[in-house]
Specification:
Layout: H1 6-20, H2 25-37, H3 39-61, H4 64-70, H5 74-95, H6 111-123, H7 126-135, H8 147-180, H9 184-206
Helix pairs in contact: 1-8, 2-3, 2-8, 2-9, 3-6, 3-7, 3-8, 5-6, 5-9
Length: 214
Amino acid sequence: MLGLTTDRLALFTLASLVLAATPGPVWLYLISRTLAQGRRAGYFSMFGVAAGLSLHATFAAFGLTVVLLAVPFAFDAIKLAGAAYLLWLAYTTVRGAGFTFTPQPLESVPDSVLLRQAFVAAVINPKVAVFYLSLFPQFVDPSTGPVLGQSLLLGAIQVGTAALMDVALVTVAGVLAGWFAQRPFWLQLQRWFLGSAFGVLAVWLALTPRHSSD
C-alpha cells in the first residue's frame, strides 16, 4: 500500500501499539480528566488529543516540522509555551476554590472546551513533533512509493492505534470515576486533584529534553 509492504506496516502498527501502551503525559491527562469529570469528559479529551496528534503527523509528513524545529530555540519556546498553558489550566481549575483548602465541587466543562483544551495541550507539546520526525524515516522507503503518501498513512495508523488505546484507558478510568462519584468527599476534592495533575504535566513538559538521550 503506497509502497509500504505488509510486513513493514505490521511492524509499524506493532511499534505504535507498544508506544501507545507506554504510560506518559497523555495517560495522566486523560485519567485525571476522567476521574475528576467523568467518562464523557475523558472521551472528548481523547478526541482533542487525537486531533492534536493528527495535526503533528500531518506537519511531519509535509516536512513542516523540520522547518519549525530548525529555527533556533523553537523547541524550547514551544515547550515553555505548553508548560505555561498547562499552568493556566491548573490555575483556572482551582480558581473556583478561592485558593483555599476548603473543599469545593468541580463544575462541569462544556464538551467544546474539553476538545479545545486537549487539542491545544497536544499541539504545543514539541516532543510529539520530534517523535514523528524520528519515527517516520525508519519506515518510509522513498524507492517504493511517494514519501508524502507513506508518511500520511503511517501517521493515520499511529493516531488510530493511540486512539484505540486511549478509548480503553478512558473506559477503565470511567468505571473508577463512577465509584468515586459516590464518595462525597472525593467530589469536593476533584478541583484540587485535576489542578494538581495539570501542574504536574506543566513541570513534566518544562523539564522534557529535546532528545530522549539527553
